[in-house]
Amino acid sequence: MPTVQANGIEIYYETQGEGEPLVLIPYLAADQACYAFQVAEYAKHFTCFTVDLRGAGLSSKPEGTYTTELLAEDVAAFMQAAGVDRAHVAGLSLGAATGIWLAARHPERVKSLSLHSAWDATDPFLRVIVEQWRIMAQALDSVTEMVIRWGRLDGAAVRFSNSTDRWSTLSRTASCCSASIGFTSAVWAMLIFR
């Protein structure tokens, strides 16, 4: 089980392939295995480093606030500890936001940056929705469980009821946004990890 000590935590990672280094940063509540289908092809051209971010998979899960800036510092420290001076960096959703901060704070480490479902800021509407999701995740004791349950609602908007410890369906239509797990994790991470 390959791990490195970096930025005060243990970070789990896997490597595959040969060539220039490619660091793959996962999305919210996912571990490095989220890239399982892509790595086989990428490994034909790159040495792929897939990482479990702080709080996910087999990496350390310390208490405290996690920000995209902190996750970027973790990735930079991981790269140093793993002997990766400079790499192509790809991220999805939370991984993309982390990649933005990595490139901004450590440009010497980033040879190229590939961002998928990225964001750089949010607006008040999404802030309110994501705050409701944060409360839901706390009530469920799991960000992963919240994402899975949200994805199963098939487009239903949900809210946390202030009068009870249960969440309830507000509407079966989500005309303003998609309730897919990808969208959910992107919007969720936008506020919680910012």
CATH topology of the largest domain: Rossmann fold
Task: Give the helix proportion (percent range).
Answer: 25-40%
Estimate nothing, just give the exact number of structural domains. 2
Count of extended strands: 8
How is the main sheet built?
6 strands, mixed
Major sheet strand order: 1-2-4-3-5-6
- SSE succession: EEEHEHEHEHHEEH
Structural Rg: 17 Å
Proportion of residues in β-strands: 15-25%
Which architecture name of the largest domain does CATH use?
A: 3-Layer(aba) Sandwich
Shape category: globular
Supply the helix-strand structural class: alpha/beta
In the CATH scheme, the class of the largest domain would be Alpha Beta
CATH superfamily of the largest domain: Alpha/Beta hydrolase fold, catalytic domain
Mean pLDDT: 77
Number of continuous helical runs = 6
Give the N-terminus to C-terminus distance in angstroms: 30 Å
Low-confidence stretches: 152-194
Characterise this structure.
By secondary structure, this protein is an alpha/beta fold. It has two domains: 3-116, 3-Layer(aba) Sandwich (Rossmann fold); 124-192, no CATH class. It contains six helices and eight strands. The strands form two sheets. A six-stranded mixed sheet has the order 1-2-4-3-5-6, with helices on both faces. It has a two-stranded antiparallel sheet with strand order 7-8.
Throw out a few tags for this protein.
single chain, 194 residues, alpha/beta, Rossmann fold, 2 domains, six-stranded mixed β-sheet, two-stranded antiparallel ribbon, 6 helices, 8 strands, 37% helix, globular, disordered C terminus
